[in-house]
Design a protein that fits this description.
The strands form two sheets. Strands 3, 4, 6, 7, 9, 10, 12, 15, 16 and 17 form a ten-stranded mixed sheet that branches. Strands 2-1-5-8-11-13-14 form a seven-stranded mixed sheet, with no helix packed on it. Helices cover 5% and strands 52% of the residues. The chain has one helix spanning 218-228; strands at 4-11, 14-18, 22-30, 33-40, 50-57, 62-67, 71-73, 81-89, 94-98, 102-104, 109-118, 123-132, 141-150, 153-162, 177-184, 195-198, 203-210. It is mostly beta strands.
């Protein structure tokens, strides 16, 4: 199946939006900022899907991305789905992505690549929640490759594989949800809970492993970090 592409570009106050199976919708716009909601136009992810999302934010521009709903990876019937996300932030740009969970149904097999490049003065705030299985099911498998750089300096390189058989053997323990918030290009406040990691470049990652989403400490950390990152009114995250 050919790659399905979604593009969101904000440069010099101009938005360029290209819809694939994820359709970007404008919810707010100002001269140097915008708020965009990503809406799935069909079932995602199915076996054999190859979905690519490319986000570009120009110098001194500010973008808020929100997902309309969680992404569910369905039983692929032996076929793998691929999700590629590429983020480029120019000098002094800001991106806040309040992402909804990626849920791995039983039988799903997903390969996800996340690549982030931020320039001098750029700031990123990203929410990432991975869920093994819907209610009362063991879930599928996920292979993640994450690479982040800031001003040409490697900030985060992580290769991660999640699968139902990892429950209880020292990777996930009894947890089925891996909840994360990442700040890149700036040092956010230290959260009261969760496990905090300082990135090699300016930035931090906080993570929690939980059995149910409502038990996660990441929403509190996210709210604190969201309030700490200076953004125009058009880029204020939802409550």
């Amino acid at each position: 199946m050919p790659t399905d592409r979604t593009l969101v570009t904000l440069i010099d106050g101009r938005l360029e939006l290209r819809a694939g199976r994820l359709a970007p919708r404008i919810t707010n716009q100002a001269p140097d900022s915008a708020s965009i909601t990503l809406l799935a136009t069909t079932a995602l992810l199915l076996g054999g899907d190859h979905v690519a999302v490319h986000i570009r934010v120009g110098p001194s521009q500010h973008l808020l991305l929100q997902d309309a709903a969680a992404t569910v990876a369905y039983n692929g019937r032996g076929l793998r789905a691929t999700l590629d996300t590429n983020i480029e932030l120019a000098a002094n740009a800001t991106l806040v992505w309040d992402a909804e969970p990626l849920i791995l149904s039983s039988g799903a097999a997903v390969h996800r690549r996340l690549t982030v490049c931020t320039a001098t003065g750029a700031r990123l705030l990203l929410r990432d929640q991975l869920v093994l299985g819907r209610t009362r099911e063991p879930g599928g498998t996920l292979t993640c490759r994450t690479r982040m750089t800031h001003n040409g300096t490697p900030a985060l390189a992580e290769d991660l594989m999640l699968a139902p058989e990892q429950l209880g053997i020292g990777v996930l323990g009894t947890a089925r949800i891996l909840d994360t918030a990442v700040a890149l290009g700036w040092r956010p406040p230290t959260p009261d809970q969760g496990t905090l990691f300082a990135l090699h470049a300016p930035g931090s990652l906080v993570r929690d492993l939980v059995t149910e989403a409502h038990l996660s400490s990441i929403p509190a950390a996210w709210a604190s970090w969201r309030d700490a990152i200076a953004t125009p009114d058009a880029v204020k995250s939802r409550p």
